[in-house]
Specification:
By secondary structure, the chain is α+β, with helices and mostly antiparallel strands. The protein folds into three domains: 4-226, HUPs (Rossmann fold), CATH 3.40.50.620; 246-325, Uridine Diphospho-n-acetylenolpyruvylglucosamine Reductase, domain 3; 335-468, no CATH class. The protein has helices at 4-15, 33-49, 65-81, 92-99, 103-122, 133-146, 150-153, 172-181, 198-214, 218-244, 258-262, 266-281, 289-297, 331-334, 407-413, 418-421, and strands at 24-28, 52-59, 85-89, 126-128, 159-160, 163-164, 248-250, 253-257, 306-308, 314-318, 321-325, 339-340, 345-349, 354-362, 375-379, 388-390, 397-400, 403-406, 426-428, 433-436, 440-441, 453-459, 463-464, 467-468. The strands form six sheets. The chain has a six-stranded mixed β-sheet with strand order 3-2-1-4-6-5, sandwiched between helices. It has a five-stranded antiparallel β-sheet with strand order 7-8-11-10-9. The protein has a five-stranded antiparallel β-sheet with strand order 12-16-19-20-21, with no helix packed on it. Helix 6 packs across helix 10. The longest helix has 27 residues, at 218-244. The radius of gyration is 34 Å and the shape is elongated.
Length: 469
């Protein structure tokens, strides 16, 4: 007959949908109380869920003969249960030096990496780990002390990808009681009693005091809070997804209308910004609360504002849009090379694949002047010096009927994003800009009664004599 403890684990697994019929489950087995309990319980529940079991053990190369003892114990336990066993030895101290991470973190990384590799190599569907409610409480405190969002306070999930945690509804005392009832022995890691490691400090110096001096149900209450946070995160994640799909993607840049982002609650703003920075950067690991807040401040900043973020990411505001852009070529590298115009000729208009067709012909009086944005006519005799296609230069001006105006002012009026200005190609002579394609054409060189020769500049895809090119 199944015990109350086994029924509790069974109910939790069903509620959380941790296993499907026929699953092959690889169990992390350290030899300690928690993992021995997990192995024993899943062995008892295997028929109910139609599971095939295996177990793996990682020898970290830290505790000498004690580590060898744990490995031998784990192997013999699996042999007694008739469960396939896989053991791996890794020098965590050497790997920690190589990765420049602490022993505790490196050991954790190695265990997950080993589990994923073995599961793939041997065809296991799920990886079962022995985390329980005390681990949830300790992780919640660990994240809280180091600084965390609600996601961090959700602590340890019952299921993530193919990793499952069947004991997450149980406390350490229940586990030890179950092992005693079943007369199951286990190994004790002597380092668990030391307070050198952060988690051990939390376990022995904080959680123990909380249970003894504040509330005996402290672990349960913290675990329940973590569950509430997890449910809240699930809801917020769904709402964040609805918001993030509204971001526009263009040339590796994600952008939002300021009005769209500003009307959302601050919680969703922060979560969306955090996610989008991570998407552009390829990682969210070093994206802090301060980075997210700095991007939010752009909602109230003037156009042209820019901030630098980790991984070479840049965020900024261009008029009524907030954008997040990945690192790329420098400004000098993105500037188009200057091209001196020879007439007639065809010239590339930046990186967009468009072409300028340029020619000169005699002007016939009363000829119909094109009035579209693709074809421009200029009085060729008014041009000063050589014509060229080039990038913007500080102080550039364009002639208008009312005088001249800086190209920068024209860009601002037409809401051309700062990032785009770097790659825009201008048509200019030695004195001023004739044409900002797609934005503005110079009035000083317009056709009039004295015109004898016409300079025609035509973008590919434009019109000529009323017909599409």
């Amino acid at each position: 007959m199944r015990s109350t403890f086994e029924k509790k684990v069974e109910a939790f697994m069903k509620k959380q949908n941790l296993a499907d019929p026929g699953d092959r489950v690889l169990i992390g087995l350290s030899g300690g109380a928690d993992s021995v309990c997990l192995l024993a319980v899943l062995r008892e529940l295997a028929d109910i869920f139609s599971l095939s079991l295996g177990a793996f053990h990682v020898n970290h190369g830290i505790r000498g003969t004690e580590a060898d003892r744990d490995e031998t114990f784990s192997r013999e336990l699996c042999e007694g249960f008739g469960i396939p066993f896989y053991s791996v030895r890794v020098s965590v101290p050497e790997l920690a030096k190589e990765r420049q991470t602490g022993l505790e973190e490196t050991g954790r990384q190695v265990r997950y990496e080993t589990a994923e590799r073995l599961a793939t190599e041997h065809g296991y569907d799920k990886i079962a780990l022995a985390h329980h409610r005390n681990d949830v409480a300790e992780t919640l405190l660990f994240h809280l002390f180091r600084g965390s969002s609600v996601s961090g306070l959700a602590s340890i999930p019952a299921k993530r990808d193919r990793i499952i945690r069947p004991l997450l509804s149980c406390e350490r005392e229940e586990i030890e009681r179950y092992l005693a009832e079943r007369s199951l022995s286990y190994c004790t890691d002597t380092t668990n009693g030391e307070t050198e490691y952060t988690r051990n400090k939390i376990r022995h110096c904080i959680v123990t005091v909380a249970k003894e001096d504040i509330n005996a149900g402290a672990v349960r209450h913290m675990a329940e809070t973590a569950e509430d946070c997890a449910e809240l995160c699930d809801y917020l994640e769904a709402e964040t997804e609805k918001l993030c799909v509204k971001a526009e993607v263009s040339e590796g840049k994600l952008s939002f209308p300021v009005s769209l982002l500003a009307k959302e609650h601050a919680v969703l703003q922060k979560r969306a910004i955090h996610r989008l920075i991570g998407e552009v950067a390829g990682s969210k690991r070093d994206i802090t609360r301060e980075h997210v807040e700095a991007v939010r401040e752009l909602l109230y900043s003037q156009s042209g504002s820019r901030i630098s973020l980790p991984y070479g990411v840049t965020a900024g505001r261009d008029f009524d849009r907030i954008f997040i852009k990945g690192g790329g070529a420098t400004e000098e590298e993105t500037k188009p090379e200057a091209q001196v115009i020879e007439i007639p000729g065809e010239y590339c208009l930046g990186a967009g694949g468009e072409t300028l067709h340029i020619r000169v012909f005699s002007y016939k009086k009363n000829a119909e002047i094109p009035k579209n944005e693709y074809t421009k006519w200029y009085d060729y005799d008014k041009i000063r010096g050589a014509l060229c296609l080039r990038s913007y230069r500080e102080g550039d001006r364009i002639g208008l009927r009312s005088g001249t105006k800086t190209v920068k002012s024209v860009w601002v009026e037409h809401k051309v994003p700062v990032e785009e200005r770097k790659t825009r190609v201008l048509l200019a002579d030695d004195e001023q800009v004739l044409w900002i394609p797609g934005v503005r054409s110079c009035d000083n060189y317009r056709i009039d009664e004295g015109t004898k020769t016409v300079l025609e500049v035509q973008r590919s895809g434009g019109y000529k004599n009323g017909s599409k090119c």
